[in-house]
Amino acid sequence: MITLGQLTLRHFILAAVILIAATLVFLSPAEFGRSGSLTLAIVLVTLGLWATALVPGYFASLLLFASVLIAGLQPAPLVFSGFASAAVWLIISGFVIGAAINATGLDSRLAGIIAPLLTRSYPRLIGGLMVASMLLGFLMPSSVGRAVVMVPIGMALADRCGFAKGSNGRIGIAAILAIGCNMPSFAILPSNIPNMVLAGSAETILGVHFGYTDYLFLHYPVLGILKSAVTVALVLALFPAKVGEPLGTTASAAATGKSGQGKVIAILLLTLVLWMTDSLHGINAAWVGLGAAVLLLSPGIGVVSPPAFKQSIDFGLLLFVAGALALGAVVGASGLGGKLGAFLTSVLPLAPGHHAANFFSLTFMSFFTGMFTTVPSAPAVLTPMAGDLAALTGYGVMTVLMTQVVGFSTVLFPYQVGPLVVAMQLSGEKLDHLVKVTVPLALITLVVLVPIDFLWWKLLGWL
Question: Does residue 352 form part of some domain?
Fold first, then answer.
């Protein structure tokens, strides 16, 4: 039983969310209707549970599934659509690839190759891992795929630097890789799912086509380079550490499983080539990863044993991610996403000629929608409104669409972006540690980087 002295700010926040949700159900405002009010209440409680992390993420997902289905608000195929998504299967294949890298000692071997370059100091290590992750963003179209490759190497480097599990140094490495494998890629068009949802929605609904170079030049200087530099500074400040003597497990890890390393390297190289050339063959990155997982698990070929497979798959994480995807689907199918957009449009100061107010308002709209629907669903909610928003602001439709990227790439809580959760799970460190970075990073982005981005856009003639 929790006493008054044990209550924290997170308890009070969750209590307030539950009170608001109960009020919605009781009053059922006319603009939402009975089913809409109940759906909104369930969504708010789910978001509150994820954001406060007072219960495991999978519990909140199961509560979402059960509540929506028992209340008859949406059909089961839609509620469970997350399990059929490419994202979940990419995560499963990622776990298998990660298990293979670890089981054969390949992570320690690769870490041994790059250790002389990065382990001279902790700042050099954190900065170097961020740069490596950023460069990989140009080669691999999947944030989870990048994490699968980088996190095992990062944890092996942590061993070489003497960073034990739960130490500042190890948490810092996990955090920089989780963010580095995901956030800079928002500025590279084909490198993560929300970007592709935006591009696909814009082409399907509005007939607008994005150019790779224009997209990169508009977003990468601030959202890629500057934001990554801020992230490195935050990690160094929040998780200070010094490189020490290697842990005792490092030497034995490097010596084990050498017979299987050649197989894993060959399968990884083939997987990387197929990931890098997805625009040529058109095979989804998740199905490429699934094929790699099948090879790594195959009797006589693979290196991942049945016990290792069972140990590598985190079913709770899969439930969490499927729940996050389901929440976006439920919000979209219920019409709440459109109502949220209409509400934000009515209260934000949008008017032709007011460039600064318009830019910040559209950015905030995308940022807030990403919190409510999760980031992959935000462009699907906002893109159909682009024409109306262009009329309200006097911007071109393309400019309105591009402001979405500034907003939904600003992540306050890890639950908004599945790959962040997956990367921390692969590292073996708690997700709560990542919140210590994402919250101040989001605030710095909104207060400092968004104004800089506004000036950059004006310099390029977009505003």
Answer: no
How far, in Å, CA of 308 to CA of 113, rounded?
A: 26
**254 and 150 both lie in a single domain:** yes
C-alpha distances out from residue 342 to 108, 369, 391, Å? 52, 11, 14
Query: What contacts 314, CB < 8 A, 6 or more positions away?
Result: 95, 425
Residue 192 near residue 133, CB atoms below 8 Å = no
Whole-angstrom distance, CA of residue 155 vs CA of residue 152: 5
Q: For the residues of 265-322, what is the DSSP string, one character each?
A: HHHHHHHHHHHHTHHHH---HHHHHHHHHHHHHSTTT----HHHHHHH--HHHHHHHH
Q: Are residues 46 and 106 in the same domain?
A: no
Asked if residue 271 lies in contact with residue 289, where contact means CB atoms within 8 angstroms, the answer is: yes
What range does the domain containing 13 cover?
8-55
- What's the pLDDT at 302? 79
Computed over its alpha carbons, how large is the radius of gyration of the chain?
22
Residues 93 and 49 occupy one common structural domain: no
CA dist 450 → 195, 222, 231, 248 (Å)? 18, 8, 15, 45
Residue 148 has a pLDDT of 83
Which tokens go with 462?
A: 């977009």
Residue 251 is predicted with a pLDDT of: 46
Same domain for 137 and 34? Answer: no
Q: Which residues are CB-neighbours of 287 under 8 A, at least 6 positions away? A: 86, 89
Whether the CB-CB separation of 304 and 297 falls below 8 Å is answered with: yes
Residue 270 is which amino acid? L
Judge if 215 and 116 occupy the same domain.
yes
Contacts of 427 (CB under 8 A, 6+ apart): 151, 154, 155, 170, 173, 174, 177, 178
Q: How many domains does the chain have?
A: 2
Q: Indicate whether this model's pTM tops 0.85.
A: no
In a domain, 251, yes or no: yes
pLDDT score recorded for residue 247 = 73
Same-domain pairing of 27 and 99: no
The stretches in the chain having pLDDT less than 70 are 1-7, 248-259, 278-279
Query: Is residue 359 domain-resident?
Result: no
